[in-house]
Amino acid sequence: MPRPADLSSALLSAAGSIRKACAYLALLALPCATPLAAEPPSDSLPPDVARFILANTEFSLMHEMGHMLIIEYDLPVLGREEDAADQLGFLALFELYSTLPTAEVDARLLDIADYWRLEWQRPKPVRERVLAWDSHPLDEQRYYNIACLLYGSDMRRLDWVPELTELPYERALYCDREFRQARKALDWASSAYQHKAIQRRAAIQVTYGQSSGAIPDFDQLLAPLLENSNLQRLAEDMVKLFHPPRPLTVRVMACGAPDAWYNSNIGELTLCYERLAHFRDLAETLPRLQPPYAWRCPNANANTLSAC
Ligand SMILES: [Zn+2]
User: Fold this and answer.
1) 1 lies in a domain?
2) Which residues have CB less than 5 Å away from ligand 1 (the ion)?
3) Which N-terminal stretch is annotated as signal sequence (predicted)?
4) What are the distances in angstroms from CA 191 to CA 88, 90, 101, 186, 195?
5) Which of the residues 150, 188, 272, 303 has the least number of beta carbons within 10 Å of its own beta carbon?
């Protein structure tokens, strides 16, 4: 019969081997449960699903913020506005996430790229497909665009991104240049109108509408946004960064479709509950990409959004 010390070292050794195997499987984008993480309470979402919902809700909001900036400040735009809104929104998250641990930032940004991969690859009816003539990029293009911006933000540290996301070498080679170009535009947009904004004292309000009753486990779905006032704080930080020229409202509400938009007539950004539910459905039902060092945090509290 093994002594307790032998038993614990044997278990640690086994856990280390499993973790190494899991890291390998994660690189292959295969699902694998960490043996050391505590099980979350049954009435809350798994932490990685909650993070996926939060990150993609934040990106949806920041994409609409990109439209807001372009419209409100009549910014010059070369190329499609939808591409510019993606770039402004995604780059802004690097600023807005600057106080988070690096592993959490990487995981959230990868979740955003991963959403477009899932959206691209999931079977869907023709009416839901983005077609070549649309003003939006194809889901497949949005996936590679965002994966490239993520990799280009720090190609040395994030050298695992091209392999994990299957970003081809021909595109990956110049991702640092793409990131710098987008960064330059963001810096310009966030500094060009500060003087006006200080005079106008812009503010932002986040409101939550009633559930339509059609979304199951509604409170569970909303929890990642409400925890630590996550969405409210992001919206307030966004105002400090971009100085919108007038008061804005972020309205989270039931609208009958998984949508989001900016209404320039009333200065309102709308996020639909159905969109959050769609994020949850994808995260819960399809295999997801995992950053490799998600497996290096054996003491992480699985009940919080922070990986480590
Ligand atoms: Zn858009």
Assistant:
1) no
2) 82, 85
3) 1-37
4) 13, 17, 26, 9, 9
5) 188
Strands (E), 139-289: 204-208, 248-253, 260-263, 268-272
pTM of the model as a whole: 0.80
Ligand 1: centre distance to CA 306 (Å): 29
For the chain (length 308 residues), average pLDDT per consecutive 10? 38 38 39 43 84 97 94 90 96 95 95 96 88 91 98 97 97 98 90 59 86 91 94 92 89 95 95 97 91 61 44
**Which residues fall within 8 angstroms of residue 156, CB to CB, at 6 or more apart?**
none
The alpha carbon of 99 and the centre of ligand 1 are apart by a number of angstroms equal to 27
What is the distance in A from the centroid of ligand 1 to the CA of 63? 6
Helix 81-96 crosses helix 175-191 at what angle (to 10 degrees)? 80
Overall domain count for the chain: 1
Residue bearing tokens 């939550």: 208
24 within some domain: no
